[in-house]
Amino acid sequence: MKKAYSNVDITLIEDTTAGNPDRVYRNQSIRVFSETPVKETGVDGKVSIANFPSEIFWSGGSVALMNGVTDVRIEQGGVTIMSGSLNSHNFFPRMIDGELRFGILTE
Fold this sequence. Notes:
Elements lengths: L1 E13 L8 E11 L4 E4 L5 E4 L3 E5 L10 E8 L2 E9 L6 E3 L2 E8 L1
């Protein structure tokens, strides 16, 4: 699924003992690519769910902004669109065609 959002607030959260405050970037534009979670029933009858990271393209972001970030929250009009851990394994933050690409693994 692909969706574009404008006028979103992006909150970058560091999980540190340094006490750094969350950084909020207001009125940003993003594009989100996400896949539907996969649900399968095993031979033991238990249902397993596989979530995939959402891929975010942020036109106002930069790789330097993501240093130390562990979690990201994206809100629009006070409503949380998505929130989760920064995926630094598959979708590590990098610039592509002038946009910051990063991944969020939502719960």
